[in-house]
Amino acid sequence: MSVSIEIFVGFKSPDFQEFCKEMETSLGITFRFVPDETSRSKTHHYYIFSDDYKCITLLKAMDYVNDRGMNFEDYQYYIGVQAIGWKYPEEHDRILNESSRSIFENLKATGRYPLMMTYDVQRKLDEFYPKPSEIISS
Amino acid sequence: VDFAARQQGAIVGLAEGLGVLPDLQIPDSGSSTGFSSVQESLNNNPSQAFQESRQANNTIGFGLPFVLEGGGVGKPPASSPEAVPVGPGIVNPAENPAPLVRAPETGPLKAEDNQGNQGPLQAGNENPNANAAGGVGDTPVASNNRGKFASRSSEIAGNIDETSQSFLPSEKPTAEILKGEGYDVKALPVSNEGGRNSDSLVTDLQTGEQTRVEFKALEGKENGESSDSNSVRNSVRRSLDRNGQARHIIFNASGSGLSQEEALRSFRRVGGIEDGRLDSLRILGDGFDVSTEYPFKP
Question: What 3 state SS string does chain A have?
Answer without folding.
Answer: CCCCEEEEECCCCCCHHHHHHHHHHHHCCCCEEECCCCCCCCCCCEEEEECCCEEEEEEECCCCCCECCECHHHCCEEEEEEECCCCCHHHHHHHHHHHHHHHHHHHHHHCCCCEEEEECCCEEEEEECCCHHHCCCC
